[in-house]
Write a structure and sequence with these properties.
2 helices; two-stranded antiparallel sheet; two-stranded antiparallel ribbon; Alpha-Beta Plaits; alpha+beta; 64 residues
Length: 64
């Protein structure tokens, strides 16, 4: 799995951080920061959840 974010579209809801805190963080303005672009199998379900709950759909997942 490869994860990408389009930070310029982020509305700073923090949903991604709540769903997958080992993969996403927020900067001082609340904008998404990608911590892990290639999460291991143990994190992949939480990344899928984060992508599905993101109100601005900034998270893109490429499955292996």
């Amino acid at each position: 799995m490869k994860v990408k974010v389009e930070a310029s579209w982020c509305v700073a809801s923090g949903s991604c951080v709540l769903a997958a805190p080992k993969v996403f963080d927020q900067d001082e303005n609340g904008v998404v920061v990608l911590i892990e672009g290639s999460p291991g199998p143990e994190l992949q379900e939480s990344v899928r959840t984060a992508a599905s709950v993101c109100p601005s759909a900034v998270i893109t997942i490429q499955e292996d």
